[in-house]
Amino acid sequence: MTTFQPAVADGEQPPADSVHPRESSPQAPTSVSRLNETIRGFVEKWGSVWVEGEITSWNVRGGNVFGRLKDRGTDATLSFRLWSSTRSRLTEDMAVGDHIVTCIKPDYFVRSGDFSFTVSAMRHVGLGEQLEKLERLRAALRAEGLFDQARKRPLPFLPHVIGLITGERSDAEKDVHRNAELRWPQVRFRTIHAAVQGDRCVPETIGALRRLDADADVDVIIIARGGGDPQTLLGFSDERLLRAVAAASTPVVSAIGHENDHPLLDDVADLRASTPTDAAKRVVPDVSEQRAMVAQLRARLGSRLQQRVAHDIAQLEQLRSRPVLRAPERGLDERAAQVAQAIGRGRAAVDRLMAHADRRSAELRATLRALSPQHTLDRGYAIVQMNDRIVRDPRDAPEGAEGFVRVANGQFAVRSLGGTAP
């Protein structure tokens, strides 16, 4: 292939853009853009390749994923980009620790000189070795009940002393102290520094935890460190540390890494904070918020008392305005008049009943008098009785029978001379 080169005069340097990198020299250097174009042309010849590894970083920005892939068994890593259009076609959810195979194509960006790999396909091979161990431990601890909410201890409203386990001169320590003191200036700390990664992390953290748990003045313990690669956070998923936290009598707060980090300590601890800053806000109340709340409650209480007093006064005035309370004797007078009317009606009714009874009694006396045997005797009639019987037939008075005759004014004895029927 023949490359066209513009003619130049003797002693002049050709333009940098016209010099191929392979033909460059101190006297005729190539340009950055020409070099980058050459590199991109070389990289584009590689094409796509399938690679296997473990995801160690998975950061989502605007739907796109920027991550890193680690070779199993070595420390070799590479960075990759997964565009949102490709991600939407994946049939599985991916996360840090997943063991995957992915089809990647190298990309070299001429403008910035950056080198990366673009993902065109990705699928699970299985859990990464570390994730597989963590998942087995997670299942065992869950079966034992170490993740149950029922065993979580409540945090004190206002701790007198906060125990803090963190790295020496770490940003996590500064964040916890600064945010806690901003919220409650009188807060006190007992801080024990420990390694937050590596082989010393677990034993030093357990030792600090036991010392603070044995301190009667410490009301709550925070275990804090900043974010990091999942490999550096493995100590906070160690079974020895998890069981020490579960056995502690003092409430423990886990504040490891950032929002996306999730070591097993988060599940065993009594409270999981997304960041060290969040831990300070969750453990220490805000004095300004508490003062505002007290002022609000006092205002609400005063308002309720004023409303209650005003309501009671209105009710009292309403009761006092009723006629029965303005003129109590009026009710008595009305009742007296009603009683007098009832007495008058009762007396009239009794008089009518008595008059009717008198008339009826007179009628009955007249009837009784008319039907009385005495009345008949007064008219000149007499009643003859013999043998204790009233004589109604001559045969009732045989000859020689004795008896008596009753007349109007008395009676007298008689003897029968006998008689005959008419």
Number of separate structural domains = 3
CATH topology of the largest domain: Rossmann fold
What is the CA-atom radius of gyration, in angstroms?
60 Å
Shape: rod-shaped
Subcellular location: Cytoplasm
Region (Disordered): 1-32
Organism: Microbacterium limosum
Keywords: Cytoplasm, Exonuclease, Hydrolase, Nuclease
Question: How is the secondary structure organized here?
Answer:
Layout: H1 32-44, E1 49-61, E2 64-70, E3 77-82, H2 84-87, E4 98-109, E5 114-127, H3 129-144, E6 161-166, H4 171-183, E7 188-193, H5 201-214, E8 220-225, H6 239-247, E9 252-256, H7 265-268, E10 271-272, H8 276-283, H9 287-320, H10 323-326, H11 328-371, H12 373-378, E11 383-386, E12 389-390, E13 402-407, E14 410-415
Parallel strand pairs: 3-5, 6-7, 6-8, 8-9, 9-10
Antiparallel strand pairs: 1-2, 1-4, 2-3, 4-5, 11-12, 11-13, 13-14
Q: How would you portray this structure in words?
A:
The chain is an alpha/beta fold. It has 3 domains: 108 residues, Nucleic acid-binding proteins (OB fold (Dihydrolipoamide Acetyltransferase, E2P), Beta Barrel); 153 residues, Rossmann fold; 41 residues, no CATH class. It is 40% helix and 23% strand. The protein is built from 12 helices and 14 strands. The strands form 3 sheets. A 5-stranded mixed beta barrel has the order 1-2-3-5-4. Strands 7-6-8-9-10 form a 5-stranded parallel sheet, sandwiched between helices. It has a 4-stranded antiparallel sheet with strand order 12-11-13-14. Helix 4 runs parallel beside helix 8 and helix 5 packs parallel to helix 6. The protein is rod-shaped and about 200 Å long. The N terminus is likely disordered.
